[in-house]
């Protein structure tokens, strides 16, 4: 059993892509289109597993993260500058912008569970800041400050398991139509007006910064492993367990929203609305479980987003440990300020979305190039892995083109 299922670095990837943004996107997908778009989540999970397997294998075999490997791959100065600028723009600036949403989502979950207590109102009145955002930011800092990979992994495994329990239990309480779920998973359809939602569902799951996170964390976990083949076997078991678990969480959120809202004529704007409005339909327990899942999702992404950005920047720019810590600390601080003051950095988020839209196919192509270099020896990509990677690259190119067109035409 242990050789097939385990939790490890891939859990960080699941924790990264199941954030408040994914919960909101999945909620809206279920509320507006029922179970019809579940197939997009199934594709996302498969595509993520293909790319993350390559990233983990790269980290284990080379002992370096994706950033370090890209620095060795690209030697032409202009191409190196453009690639590095794109990574910094998309991963570092983008994660700084999204960090505010991560902390805000966790704060909404906390408020739905514990309410707006007198102490919280008093602190907010005197400081003008959101105390929940400050507390969540401090928790993220404490987890990362220790600098121990084992501690970070254990904390995030706990949060992913908590999310799984909360969201899947909520789904079961709402009694979804399982036959419709199976049909939605296996029969791809795009209802009228659902194209943007399909792009969003895939885009919130297959994200470029997770490749930096997984390669670096795998290199850290198995840096002393004497048997590369055994380490890769453990990594593959981790991917088979963790990534589908993250997909199950997304499916649970879509199904909960579909059961509660699809065809009802009611509308929701965010996941916190879904948590609060479940109470009249399915009881207080459903509200608590949904809010707990949202809190765990926000907190897990509040840890993984700055960590991924720091890994990417350290690999690309050869940062010292002090600058590595300064990078993630700065991103958390930006997120706390954005969330506490209720700011909406629309232009920065728009810029991050554009940069991410360009980065995903570029990084996918670079990853495929790295995985075919001779220094990987027997662990290079075979024809099957290259074929699957090429399919993911082409689809990411189409999705990115569509996203960029929408960003510039809106």
UniProtKB/TrEMBL annotation:
It comes from the Bacteria. InterPro entries: NRAMP_fam. It is a multi-pass membrane protein. This is Nramp family divalent metal transporter. Its main location: membrane. NCBIfam families: Nramp_1 (NF037982). Keywords: Membrane, Symport, Transmembrane, Transmembrane helix, Transport. It holds the Pfam family Nramp. The chain crosses the membrane at residues 35-56, 77-98, 129-148, 155-173, 193-213, 245-268, 288-313, 325-343, 349-370, 390-408. It is found in: Membrane. It comes from Alkalimonas cellulosilytica.
